Each structure stands twice: as C-alpha cells, then as structure tokens.
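Re: weekly structure request thread

Next one in the queue (211 aa):
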Amino acid sequence: MQAHKFDEQLKTSVLSRLQDFERRESSKPDLRDAAVAIILAQCPASGRPSVLLTRRPETMNRHAGQYALPGGRVDAGESQVETALREVREEIGLELTPLEVLGQLDDFETRSGFRISPFVMWCDHQEDLRPDPAEVDAVFHIPLTELDDPSVPKLSTAYAGDSPVLSAFIPTLGHEIYAPTAALLVQFRDVALRGMHTRVAHFEQPAFTWK
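Done, posted below.
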C-alpha cells in the first residue's frame, strides 16, 4: 500500500496517468447523460490526500441515503465537464474551474438509465465547502489509503446479468459502497494512482440502485 502525500508530485503523477489513459465512451442510445466529479483534496483532520464523497438525504425521491460522488444530469446546452463543475458548486458549495480538471475516466452505463461521465479534479482550497442540505446530508473525506486497501474491490453474485456486483468497504463510512460509485473509485485508483488501464463498466449494480 503506497503512502501518498497531497502535493504537486501527486497532482503531476495523476495528471500524467490520466493523459496516458484511453477512455472509453458509451454510445448506447436512449440513455440520459450525467457527469460526476472525483475530487482529490486534503483531509483537514489528517492532512492526507482523499477523495470527497457525499451521502444523499433520506428525504430525496431517488437514491435516498446512498453514498455518491458530486454530480447529476447534464442540462440542455451544457457540456459534461460544465455539468460536473456546476454540480460540485451546487451540491457542496465548492468553486472549481476547468483548470482544476485533471482528466476523465470511462463512461459508466447505469441500470437507472444514465450514462455517467466521471471527471477527476484537484482541489487545494476547501474553505468554501458548503453542502446544500437539500441534496447532501454529509460530505466525507475518503483517504486514498482506504481505496488502496487489498480488500478493495469486493465482488459478489449479481441479482441479474453475467458480471458480479462490485463493492468496497470504506472504514471512514463504516459501510460498503456499491457500483456505480464504487466502480468509478476503483477505476480512479487503478488508473490515476497505479498507472493501470482497468475497465469497470461491465460490473453489475445492486438492485436497490436500479430505480
């Protein structure tokens, strides 16, 4: 397990590996476009590099109480990266710019009918972190060491489909998270931190995420 520091060396390394990665786009028709942000930031408590993860309020109509990356549906006239940046601002009050986007991972087709485009972003300022209580119940800093643990990912029998369900136990949360969020974080770890060309779009999602 590699010990990372939140510094320019990490930023340069992640940027280089994402530039070398040939992402795969989804061209499946009848999917709604969405974008999410995998934000690399420094944990205020420990100083360790981490990624930001949110928990949705129990009052939401869809995916209530689930852990998620900041993101949402692409609005008319928006590019995918514009959506990701807007959702980061609206959900957690963080102002990031296109200059802080390091790269992009594979599209992920969800059972709920979305084509998710993930963007990796760098954040060295968190003083403006202001979660919108209507969309975010809490924001968590997930240390990179937890993603780098040998127990990640966990694969289990799927309710339907030929591929297993991908999940990951996250000690900071005390819970497992599941695909698509877990799958995107595993690809981020393998591509951005390990220099691998792992694909995750084939992994199945648990039935509770289908709606």
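Helices lie at 8-20, 80-92, 144-147, 181-193. The chain has a mean pLDDT of 93.
Next request, please.
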